[in-house]
Amino acid sequence: MDRLPRWADVVLVPLISLLFAAIISALVLLAIGQSPVEAFKVMATGAVGSAYGWGYTLYYATSFIFTGLAVTVAFHAGLFNIGGEGQAQLGGLGVALVCLSLPWPHWTLALLAATAGAALFGAAWAAIPAYLQAKRGSHIVITTIMFNYIAAALLVYLLVDVLRPAGQMDPASARFPVGAKLPALNDIPGFDLIFTKPVPANVTLFVALGMAVVVWAILWRTRLGYQMRAFGKSEAAAKYAGINPVRITIIAMLLSGALAGMMSINNVMGEAERLLQNSSEGAGFIGIAVALMGRNHPIGVVLAALLFGFLYQGGAELGLWTSIPIEMRIVVQGLVILFTGALDVMVRMILQRIFGLFRSFKAAGVA
Amino acid sequence: MDALAKNMGRRATAAPFSIELKGISKAFGPVQANKDINFAVPKGTIHGIIGENGAGKSTLMSILYGFYKADSGQIFVNGQLTTIPDSQSAIRAGIGMVFQHFKLVQNFTVLENIILGAEDGALLNTSLSKARRVLRELAQEYELDVDPDALVEDLSVGHQQRVEILKALYRQADILILDEPTGVLTPDEADHLFRILKGLKDQGKTVILITHKLREIMEATDNVSVMRRGTMVATVKTAETSPEALAELMVGRKVLLEVDKGTPNPGKVVLSVENLRVRDEHGVERLKGISLEIRAGEILGIAGVAGNGQSELLAALGGMMWATGRVTLNGAELPLSGAGSDGQSRRAAGIAHVPEDRHHHGLILDFSAWENMAFGYHNAPQYQKNALFMDNDALIADTEHKMAEYDVRPPIPSLAAKSFSGGNQQKIVVAREMERNPDLLLIGQPTRGVDIGAIEFIHKQIIALRDAGKAILLVSVELDEIMSLSDRIAVMFDGQIMGLRDPATTNERELGLLMAGVAGSSSGAAA
């Protein structure tokens, strides 16, 4: 098959996929008697039309960067980690335990400790499916899905029976001490000039961007990343090279789980300031779409996370300002996932045809 | 050679060719796989098509069998202009194809496989009894005897190939195309195949034989067409040419077919293997007590039909499979299972390994050439910048150096391994393993899918390593390669060594019998 030029593969394919998703979404909106143009205007204004909107979009994007990176790391080792959701919830537990354990003197210390706690708990939750895959051959897709349910159930139990302060009605932990409060973007000197109103986006955004760099460096600059990628491309070849499959499977899943867990410093510590039921709100699953769309590269993941942040925030605005049901947000997200994740091969094939035609015209012109 | 083609062209009106191609071109993107191919196969002849890997042989045959559509050009079958959009049309036009990798249903009987896709009605019985009758006739006519009720999975490779030929004949093929048919056969089975093909020819059928083995072309064909880089460079009468002339046409320059090597100068024992046994993942014993020794400065060649334990021998010694027995390298015992038995430990002990299957083991095809140059040696100190990071720059420089030394083309370290030709891929693997200066080199199928020019180069490197005093274990299904490179030959059959022979005093017939499990001295090992 003809190869696409790299720029077309990286830029054109996702853009055209998005365009398809937008067209179908518009048709759906027309079908329910709404104006697509109006809907898009509301989404764009609400998500990126103001600093306030950006504050939400970036907040969602922060979570998606973490979960997208989690899927990416596992993917390069040939593992499909669908358990980001459960690992993120356990990460939230880690954050809560750390934050509630001490009257933290300063947020920087609390952030460091909470990040470690989130990573540790997320990694621990991924360790069991990793062990089962590496040693027992239980398929990681199945086990990580099941572990999402176990995580949800475990958290309900902990929030209802263990972490809930006496007298509190809802299943949630106590509020975190003031010293563990992370500065939002509107609290940071310099940024407060842009973000004049309180926004949920907080310093975790910079942790997420930092992790994107770390993931890139691990994958493409270290021996571990080399071995993970080799193992992911070909298990048989990895065996020839003497790469230990058990070790790589477990390390890759620990890293993946740690990244998924770390998203909880964004929502649990940075926004809710206490552990709630279902704290991750599906961000673990969105991470799969983000990684797919971002072509499993940290830069792509950051960009795709921004797009999904936009969809999340824009979709919420739809519910607020129009009579379009908020469920439309899920329809649009579903279409974006469908086209960018599952159907991008179709787009690529169409483009290959077009580029092939273009080439033969050029060849004919030369001859 | 052009004169012959023209001559053939003139006769075309009188006696139509079985197949005639005019101006066939096919491009895959920027790659021109076939360029303006003109060639004709006279009826009732065996026509060889020879060329290096990637010369366009398979593409041309795929066009003929309806797998690809030519961008331009015409196909004439028996003088009739024909379009072949799919394989059904090819079969209707009387073209049958025997693929290199058989397309048989393993758990069907021979009869069921024969009628598959050619059933006459809703009830199988009528087709089956008709097929049984036809099969009996064909068996008598062409020495094509196969038990019609045997399950295909119980048949030897040679017999499975006969089923493929019978399938084509049952569909009344007049033109039979065989793609690399002898790759998996013993010399005896290959001889039998050529007898069958001669029989078909005598009955007026036309055979097209695609191969890269010059010997087979010389032995079996009437005419031969040579392809190079997508073009048909020559069509000649086999009787009027020589292997040297054909090799030169294939490569475009003079090629040394004989390996030029001096007498060996064996030193101390480097590798000693005693009673090596390996079970595969299904618990089947694949190595049944192998014992052998290799000395420094010596090449031990392992001959055998593919699948008789050679792969497991390499895997066990290379740390890819657990085994039992006793293996020592320079006197030190190597663990054969558990910790210390993996590929990393073997490399540390001084064993380099050019695996049989470079696509599945030797290379990560999506990795760049420089990433592949560290494969298996990614822990080597010279590739580390510090405790944390790999030194990619050093690795790229090292790759540039090795690419120059081993004449890898194109010499671009950042190019993905999958973008190199087979020969250049193999040179990357060979460069990586040989430049480690190992005490023992395991090398499997060193020239499989490699063009003649690169074969010459790789053979020279193997000899040079031997002359540098290294021990070499060579596994190859190409008997010519084993006979020309080895200082001693061990023949494997069914997980055992049937015998050791001196290449100077043995011959293909003797080795062929051993490969088929017919032992000269020991008994009870017959096939």
Task: Please give a structural write-up.
The complex is a heterodimer of chains A (367) and B (527). Chain A has 367 residues and is mainly alpha-helical. Chain A is built from 16 helices and no strands. Chain A has helices at 6-31, 36-48, 51-76, 84-101, 107-136, 140-162, 191-194, 204-221, 223-233, 235-241, 245-262, 264-272, 283-293, 298-321, 328-342, 344-366. In chain A, helix 2 packs across helix 14 and helix 5 packs across helix 6 (140-162). The longest helix of chain A is centred in the first third of the chain and has 30 residues, at 107-136. Among the domains of chain B are: 107-164; 269-515, Rossmann fold (3-Layer(aba) Sandwich), CATH 3.40.50.300. Chain B contains 18 helices and 20 strands. In chain B, helix 15 (422-434) packs parallel to helix 16. Chain B is globular and about 70 Å long. Chain A binds chain B through residues 1-3, 217, 221-223, 226-227, 229-230, 233-234, 236-237, 239-244, 356, 359, and chain B through 28-30, 318-320, 342-347, 353, 355, 360-367, 371, 374-376, 378-379, 384, 388-390, 392.
Give a quick rundown of the structure.
Chain A is built from 16 helices and no strands.
Topology, pairings included?
The complex is a heterodimer of chains A (367) and B (527).
Chain A: H1 6-31, H2 36-48, H3 51-76, H4 84-101, H5 107-136, H6 140-162, H7 191-194, H8 204-221, H9 223-233, H10 235-241, H11 245-262, H12 264-272, H13 283-293, H14 298-321, H15 328-342, H16 344-366
Helix pairs in contact in A: 1-15, 1-16, 2-3, 2-14, 3-8, 3-11, 3-13, 3-14, 4-5, 4-6, 4-11, 4-12, 4-13, 5-6, 5-11, 8-9, 8-14, 9-10, 9-11, 13-14, 13-15, 14-15
Chain B: H1 2-11, E1 17-28, E2 31-42, E3 46-51, H2 57-64, E4 72-77, E5 80-82, H3 87-92, E6 95-98, H4 110-115, H5 124-142, H6 157-170, E7 175-179, H7 187-202, E8 206-211, H8 214-220, E9 223-228, E10 231-237, H9 243-251, E11 269-279, E12 285-295, E13 298-303, H10 310-318, E14 324-329, E15 332-333, H11 343-349, E16 351-354, H12 358-362, H13 369-373, H14 392-405, H15 422-434, E17 440-444, H16 452-467, E18 471-475, H17 479-485, E19 488-493, E20 496-501, H18 508-515
Parallel strand pairs in B: 3-8, 3-9, 6-7, 7-8, 13-18, 13-19, 16-17, 17-18
Antiparallel strand pairs in B: 1-2, 1-4, 4-5, 9-10, 11-12, 11-14, 14-15, 19-20
Helix pairs in contact in B: 15-16
